[in-house]
Amino acid sequence: MSYTTPRRDNAIDGLRALAVIAVILFHVDATLLPGGFTGVDLFFVVSGFVISQSLASRPNDHAGRFLLDFYRRRVLRLLPALLLVLLVTFLLSALLIPRAWRNEQFDQTGLGALLGVSNFVLAWQGGDYFSPGADLNPFLHTWTLGVEEQFYLLFPLLFLVWLRGRHTQAWSRWLLPVLALASLCFGAWQTRSAPVSAFYLLPARFWELASGALLYQFVATHRLAPHWQGWALPGLLLLVVGFLFVPELLSPVPGVIGTVVGTLMLLAAATAAASAQRAQPLLRALQWRPLAYLGRLSYGLYLWHWPLLVLLRWTYGMHGIALWAYPVLLLMLASASYHWVECPVRAAGWGKRWHPGKILLVAMAGLGVSTAAAWTTVQYTDSLSLSTTGDGYTWRAQRQPKWMPVETIDAPALAGRNLFVAGDSHAAAYRNMVSIAARQFDLNLHMDERGGCSIVNLLRASSDQCAPYLERVLSGIERDARPGDIVLLASLRMPELRDVDFSGGEEAAFATLRSERSAADEAAAEREANAVLARLEPLKVQVIIDAPLPVFRSAAYRCSDAFNRMNPACAGGLSVPRAQMEALRAPQMALLQRLAARYPAVHIWDPMPLLCTAERCTAMDGEQPLFFDQDHLSGHGNRVLLPDFDRLLLRIGQGTEE
Fold it and tell me: What is the structure's pLDDT at 2?
């Protein structure tokens, strides 16, 4: 097979370096370069241009060989380093990342990355790229690889059509421009109607990669005069504007249009310089050897930068020595990946001698083995974990396993009754306790919780989005409840501390927090509580409302290990003054007392005395957690509260029996 190897252009490598540096700076600290994430869009345009250049250099007389050879080269170029990074990340994540609510989402993203569909997984999960918590997913960055890999499935065929028909068939010249324009228009619509899908999926991104390919098609058929180098400065200015100001615009359309246009201008200028006797100073700067070397490392830098950063965020944190160690470690990993994995595989003689089909079969086998290894790691994470949170029975409030015996309690007045549990994620955090209690008293347990949708939160009116959930809960109880059944309404009934500014001191912070609850909020909370209890009262059910529990500045699961206690996320500590908690919940307790006086079937259950000493409330019970995070109970915390909850159920049973 004969072909012409495309000449390496140091200016293009310099562009790659700018792209990856911008992305890394944004991910380390978004305030350093607020639009640095558009470095990804720069990558997309350059990729479309370079892939076109590579395809044009290959024989195209046989479509099958043309396509197989393309996929052979893509596999050898991308797959080995990707599999290495993903498998190392799976292992280190299992060892060092505490087991939390979102670990399952992280694992799904990583497994999706092995199959080239992590962008679909992220879009399906529905979380925004910029949302809180997204920066803790060690596989988040692989969405861009998914977009490119999906582009590669379609683009070689489109390019082959252009190669064969560009001189004789006008439609072949218009096919890619029309598809790119359609993608741009679709992206503009989808950015507003379904922004998460627009951000992560190929249809709204196709035009970016296609624009680089279209530029190549133009320069392949038109000789660019030296004066085209003049586009370099305005192109660079557009990139800088994108890096600094894109967050003000919707992304990807119209937010990244400036970055795409700027990249095209720089690529055109670099192409013109390649045929000129002397390049302009700006283009010579892009060709600077250290910058070009970083461009050659860009794939490894991109692959490694995010999991390394996320693992630091989960453990020691990005502060102190980590700020200096991070770039050094990253450069070492990317260099090792380039020189010991990427280059040897691409230069190996067998890679050129073997039939492309054989290479693709070997790649599929390697992918299958890697996926099996990753899946096995996920399944045995609790056993592998170096974190104390690997002990799911202690940390997580899952239901008591049916095989685990419980001590039954003889209470004929309660046997056979229904126990309904409803509320937000804090209702779910009582799973272990209520499932044990149901077995102890032979109760029929019905749980229906929805995160973020409180019931009788005592703070303010619930979101309108939660109205269907509330109606479903109340309708279900009205349909299934019998007189004497028990309803536990559990929700977050305290302001959260995680985003409160404590820089002015603890007293000032708590005073500000107390002042934020207005009279209108209190009135709305009382109206909503009355509406709920008025519907339950005719059913003659017994209603338990848990009193507000302590809340903390730091999450217990993030601060429970020797390797993460120094993390800035743990600086707030795992205890708070009880007096501040009592003052913070005083208005809610007063409202609870009014509700209990108004509705005789309402029982206030207050676990605070079991979770706090006279002076302080703490998230830890010695070495064991009472709370999982800043406000959700742990499995151990459930079992600490169980005896008191049992006593309340016995009193309810005796009272209703009388």
Answer: 43
Tell me the torsion sign for CA atoms 522, 527, 530, 531: negative
* Residue 658 pLDDT: 47
Closest CA to 618 of 564, 581, 565: 581
Q: Long-range contacts for 179-183 (Cβ within 8 Å, ≥24 apart)?
A: 179/206, 179/210, 180/206, 180/207, 180/210, 180/211, 180/214, 181/207, 183/207, 183/210
pLDDT tens for residues 413-429?
A: 999 999 999 999 999 99
Cβ–Cβ < 8 Å for 385, 99: yes
Write b or e for each residue in 29-59: b if 16 or more Cβ atoms lie within 10 A of its Cβ, otherwise e. Answer: eeeebebbbbbbbbbbbbbbbbbbbbbbebe
Confidence of residue 277 (pLDDT cuts 50, 70, 90): low
Domains contained in the chain, CATH given: 10-71+117-314 (no CATH), 396-657 (3.40.50.1110)
Are 40 and 29 within 8 A, CB to CB?
no
Question: In terms of DSSP bridges, do strands 542-546 and 616-618 run parallel, antiparallel, or are they unpaired?
Answer: unpaired
> Closest Cα to residue 73, out of 334, 281, 372, 356?
356
Written as one letter, the residue type at 288 is W
With a cut of 80, say whether residue 160 has pLDDT above it. yes
First vs last C-alpha separation in the chain? 93
How are beta strands 620-621 and 624-625 bridged, if at all? antiparallel
Whether residue 1 has pLDDT greater than 50: no
Pairing mode, strands 486-490 and 602-605: unpaired
> What distance in Å separates the CA atoms of residue 373 and residue 32, rounded to the nearest whole number?
38
Cβ 559 vs Cβ 570: under 8 Å: yes
Q: Are strands 616-618 and 418-423 parallel, antiparallel or unpaired?
A: unpaired
Per-residue model confidence (pLDDT) at position 169: 84
Torsion over CA: 158, 161, 167, 173 (sign): negative
Buried b (16+ CB within 10 A) or exposed e, 346-359: eeeeebeeeebeeb
Distance of CA 230 to the CA centre of its chain: 41
pTM: 0.90
Residue pLDDT, tens place only, 449-475: 999 999 999 999 988 999 999 999 999
DSSP symbols for 116-141: T-HHHHHHHHT--TTSTTGGG-TTGG
Q: Quick check: 208 and 252 in contact, CB under 8 A?
A: yes
pLDDT tops 50 at residue 235: yes
Rounded CA-CA distance 477/600 in Å is: 18
The closest alpha carbon to 440, from 648, 182, 129, 142, belongs to: 648
Instruction: Determine contact, residues 12/267, Cβ cutoff 8 Å.
Output: yes
Q: What is the helix (H) or strand (E) element at residue 445, kind and residue range?
A: strand 444-449
- Buried residues in 72-88 as b, exposed as e (16+ CB within 10 A): bbbbbebbbbbbbbbbe
DSSP 619: S
Helix extents (H) in 517-657: 519-536, 578-598, 608-611, 635-657
Measured over the CA atoms of residue 336, residue 339, residue 340 and residue 343, the dihedral's sign is positive
Hey, which residues does 487 pair with through a beta bridge? 420, 543
CA distance linking residue 386 with residue 104, whole number of Å: 18
577-598 pLDDT tens trace: 999 999 999 999 999 999 999 9
Type of residue at 452: G
